[in-house]
Amino acid sequence: MDFVEKEELNIPSYISEFINNNMEALKKIYMDHIQNGYGILLVKIEESKNNVSVAFLNEEIVKETYIKELVDKLNGRTLLNIIDLELNKNYWIELNLT
User: Fold this and answer.
1) Distance (Å, rounded) from C-alpha 47 to C-alpha 33?
2) DSSP characters for 14-69?
3) CA distances (Å), 14 to each of 45, 72, 85, in order?
4) In this structure, how many other beta carbons lie within 10 angstroms of the beta carbon of residue 67?
5) d(CA 75, CA 81)
6) What is the C-alpha radius of gyration for the chain, rounded to an integer number of angstroms?
């Protein structure tokens, strides 16, 4: 699985807007939880209901939820997994924490 910048993903504008408008908050959530090992931010979006949920998945949950090939690629990466519930699409974005 390759990880690409969001500009290369052709993601819907409402997802791009959410990321751009909330980048600092997403970084803060990640940094507040990452001290105990690796993890990812999971964002579920349902545009028609104007609903977004954000959760940090710690190392244990990631190992239980995702395939081993993905877990192996997480080492040292800051990842955001976005699930568009209406389009049934899954996007991966690497966050720049600087």
Assistant:
1) 27
2) HHHHHHHHHHHHHHHHHHHHGGGS-EEEEEEEEGGGTEEEEEEEEHHHHHHHS-HH
3) 9, 30, 13
4) 8
5) 15
6) 13
Note the pTM of the prediction, 2 decimals. 0.80
Express each pLDDT in 47-84 by its tens digit: 999 999 999 988 888 888 877 777 777 777 788 899 99
**Per-residue pLDDT reduced to its tens digit, 12-23:** 989 989 988 998
Query: In this structure, what DSSP letter does residue 83 have?
Result: E
Query: In whole angstroms, what is the distance from residue 19 CA to residue 30 CA?
Result: 14
